[in-house]
Amino acid sequence: MVNGVRKNVYALIMAGGIGKELWPVSRKKLPKQFADLFDDGTMITRTVQRMRGTVIDDNVFIITSELGRRQISTSLHNFRVDNIIVEPSSRNTALCIALATAHIKKRDPDAVTIVLPADHLVLDDKVFNNIIEAGIEIASGKKGLITIGVKPDRPETDYGYIQVDEQLSIPLAFAAGCDYMLFRVKAFAEKPDLATAAEFLESKDFYWNSGIFIWHIDAICREFERSMPDLYKDLLNIYESLGTENEQKVIEDVYSWIHPISIDYGIIEKADPVFVLTGEFGWTDLGSWDEVLKVVGRRTLTTEERPEDRLVQIDCENLFVKKPSGKVVCTIGVYDLIIIDTDDALLICQKGESHRVGEIVDTLRRDGLEEYL
Length: 373
Fold this sequence. Notes:
Blueprint: E1 9-15, H1 43-51, E2 60-64, H2 66-75, E3 84-86, H3 92-107, E4 112-117, E5 120-122, H4 125-139, E6 145-150, E7 161-168, H5 172-175, E8 180-189, H6 194-203, E9 206-216, H7 217-227, H8 229-241, H9 247-257, H10 263-266, E10 274-279, E11 283-285, H11 289-296, E12 300-301, E13 311-314, E14 317-322, E15 329-332, E16 335-341, E17 346-350, H12 357-366
Parallel strand pairs: 1-2, 1-4, 2-3, 6-10, 12-14, 13-15, 14-16
Antiparallel strand pairs: 4-9, 5-11, 6-9, 7-8, 7-9, 8-10, 16-17
Helix pairs in contact: 3-7, 3-8, 7-8, 8-9
């Protein structure tokens, strides 16, 4: 134990995505996890800070791209350099987690790992950390994998879902005054249509899949061996190569042939048992501007609140504007719009349609306008 924190608990923060649905703020050179969406710090900085108190600083790993490594060096000045794992290319989350598992197992063969994305928002850190602590306790028993479910408050079509089965008792040390529940997982569901999402909400036995996992290193290795034996062999080869002159070559060879697959589809949906801890901690997957809007409501985000940083509206309703400091944005007779203004690009989008921003990014790429991506 270090200051009351277990020495064998590790955090793995996945920071390899591009986040094209949040263009034009999120770019190739500055993906959304390294952007300051709310003028209160980058998403990855907030994620690292959230882990403090649960994981000692030396046990926080980030897996990212080469570009991400450079961004981390800029935004997280004191972050341990050898805890940054660089993927040669993006191959979805199963390989990403297998590579990181090899690194963590090399550091500590008794590790309990918390896996979480760098770009999710959590408003109630206290409840979140309480749930994580309970998950660590359960995962230490090596009996199964734990995922975190979020109680839905609307029929959301942009999230995956977890259907729960029997409710289980919370570990005694965490039972008093707990604000979460533990279930065995019955099934996973992909992103539904609106009618199905409404049925999920009505049934009360479906939760949003947060994409946050907790497991003992032995448990996840066991599931890799059972469900993805070829990748498990690669994991072992990477493990043996770490710290040798062959390390980079072995990793690049694995990434050169592997078929991209998510950890959910490749492992989690086939694992047994899988448990889910559910609670309400203000979680949002910031996958679109509409998701950002649900968090910030109706307000203008600026670096500093100065008189010249005004949003002037005449006969307008329900606008969301994000713009550079020092610029005035004026609107007349419009409503239900998302307006994202940057130095070199302007996005104007009807609310409810921001999930299509990726189509704009694809169009810009096809038209040879890569400089705006």
